[in-house]
């Protein structure tokens, strides 16, 4: 690990001194204390402990001067009115739910930064023309219903109607949204949000390794899931000659290696790309039987759609060539889901770059390989993200860690950006 020098943005002469790292730390500690017993840090959406976290956040929003409500999609929103209601809102925030044993900072850092931003504006006596809204989106992580970004999809009117019938035991998603205060049959779509900004831990090692403070997110990678089935023939492992086998596993192994090769070739450029064989199922899965059937599930992520198209074309050719060479039927690749990349809004990216300069933050532009609520908010408004470093790039683990100082610097960038956007949005319309 590269030792990171103290963030220059924390020098009071070069950052907004109204941002207080100790208040951010206190907020994170308070939420971290609300976790399932013996499972730090676990606060999954729709659970009793999640609702306790929501109760704490609601009070924190009110203490920061906001009026709170739960919208129809089940999102918790704190709103501070602006001087000109006709201009709509600048919204900031993220999510407070976690994966099981997930971490203290994924999502939480963005909400806490929003709280601190509101307190800093109040402490400085700054009243925006736009309203400021802080949001805790419902169920950004994969929920007990097997789907994610439930709240931001609801706010952007992109939540599939059939999701409401999904169930966990006897509880349906329709009922669960109601239990958190939402109304699953009422539209939560917003057309009055002028811009949305989300602070998030990077969940990767780039900022730490390059000794940088802030990542300005150029795009949220599109995610494509691809299934490949290899159909061989089961035979006795001891008596079937090697040259007579139809081994599904060895053919599948060649396909997995080709996925890595294609991914590495595309990742070697200036734009983010990653491909992983994340699921691998084999039958009959017995030591003395030649494998007859293998299913591979590939997770591919691209900052640029052209790279994903190139990957899919290359994969189709590779599978066909491998199958012909081994004599074992495979594929063709079947696309199960296919979400395109979401670019950050160019105007917001420029504002964030300038805010980093104002705060004295060492920064770079970079893509996000993970999905975020911002991708759905971009359907209805200008949207962008910033990343702050996390230790060794670890996330979705109890070892996830980010310093209060790094989050405070990110909050300072957000504060400068929001104040600038309050003016700029009126200029660009």
Characterise the protein shown here.
- The chain is 34% helix and 22% strand.
- By secondary structure, it is of the alpha/beta class.
- It has two domains: 8-220 and 342-428, Zn peptidases (Aminopeptidase, 3-Layer(aba) Sandwich), CATH 3.40.630.10; 222-338, Alpha-Beta Plaits, CATH 3.30.70.
- The strands form three sheets. Strands 1, 2, 3, 4, 7, 8, 13, 14 and 15 form a nine-stranded mixed beta sheet that branches. Strands 10-11-9-12 form a four-stranded antiparallel beta sheet.
- The chain is elongated and about 80 Å long.
- The model is unreliable at 1-15 (pLDDT under 50).
Q: Strands, helices and their partners?
A:
Blueprint: H1 21-32, H2 48-63, E1 67-70, E2 76-80, E3 89-95, H3 108-124, E4 131-137, H4 150-155, E5 167-168, E6 171-172, H5 173-179, E7 193-201, H6 206-209, E8 214-220, E9 222-231, H7 248-267, E10 273-283, E11 293-302, H8 305-326, E12 334-338, E13 342-343, H9 346-359, E14 363-368, H10 374-377, E15 382-388, H11 404-428
Parallel strand pairs: 3-4, 3-7, 7-15, 8-14
Antiparallel strand pairs: 1-2, 2-4, 5-6, 8-13, 8-15, 9-11, 9-12, 10-11
């Amino acid at each position: 690990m590269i030792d990171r020098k103290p963030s220059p943005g924390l020098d009071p002469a070069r950052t907004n001194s109204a941002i207080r790292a100790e208040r951010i730390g206190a907020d994170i500690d308070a939420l971290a204390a609300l976790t399932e017993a013996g499972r730090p840090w676990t606060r999954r959406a729709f659970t009793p402990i999640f609702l306790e976290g929501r109760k704490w956040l609601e009070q924190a929003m009110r203490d920061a001067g906001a009026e709170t409500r739960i919208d129809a999609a089940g999102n918790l929103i704190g709103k501070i009115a602006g001087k000109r209601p006709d201009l709509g809102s600048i919204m900031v925030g993220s999510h407070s739910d976690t994966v099981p044993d997930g971490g203290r900072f994924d999502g939480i850092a963005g909400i806490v930064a929003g709280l601190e931003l509101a307190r800093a504006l109040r402490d400085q006596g700054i009243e925006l023309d736009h309203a400021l809204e802080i949001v805790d989106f419902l169920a950004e992580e994969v929920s007990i219903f097997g789907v994610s970004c439930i709240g931001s999809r609801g706010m952007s009117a992109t939540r599939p109607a059939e999701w409401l019938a999904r169930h966990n035991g006897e509880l349906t998603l329709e009922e669960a949204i109601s239990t958190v205060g939402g109304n699953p049959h009422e539209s939560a779509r917003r057309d009055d949000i002028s811009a949305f900004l989300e602070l998030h831990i990077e969940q990767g090692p780039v900022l730490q390794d390059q000794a940088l403070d802030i990542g300005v997110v150029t795009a949220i990678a599109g995610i494509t899931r691809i299934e490949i089935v290899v159909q061989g023939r089961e035979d006795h492992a001891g008596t079937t000659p090697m040259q007579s086998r139809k081994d599904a596993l060895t053919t599948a192994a060649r396909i997995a290696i080709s996925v890595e090769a294609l991914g590495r070739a595309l990742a070697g450029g200036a734009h983010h790309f990653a491909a992983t064989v994340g699921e691998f199922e084999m039958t009959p899965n017995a030591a003395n039987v030649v494998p007859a059937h293998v299913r591979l599930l590939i997770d591919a992520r691209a900052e640029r759609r052209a790279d994903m198209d190139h990957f899919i074309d290359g994969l189709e050719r590779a599978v066909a060539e491998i199958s012909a060479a081994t004599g074992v039927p495979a594929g063709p690749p079947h696309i199960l889901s296919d979400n395109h990349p979401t670019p950050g809004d160019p105007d917001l990216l420029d504002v964030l770059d300038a805010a980093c300069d104002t705060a004295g933050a060492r920064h770079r532009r970079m893509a996000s390989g993970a999905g975020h609520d911002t991708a759905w908010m971009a359907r209805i408004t200008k949207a962008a993200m910033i990343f702050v470093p996390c230790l060794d790039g670890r996330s979705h683990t109890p070892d996830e860690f980010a310093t209060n100082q790094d989050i405070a610097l990110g909050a300072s960038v957000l504060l400068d950006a929001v104040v600038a956007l309050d003016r700029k949005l009126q200029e660009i319309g």
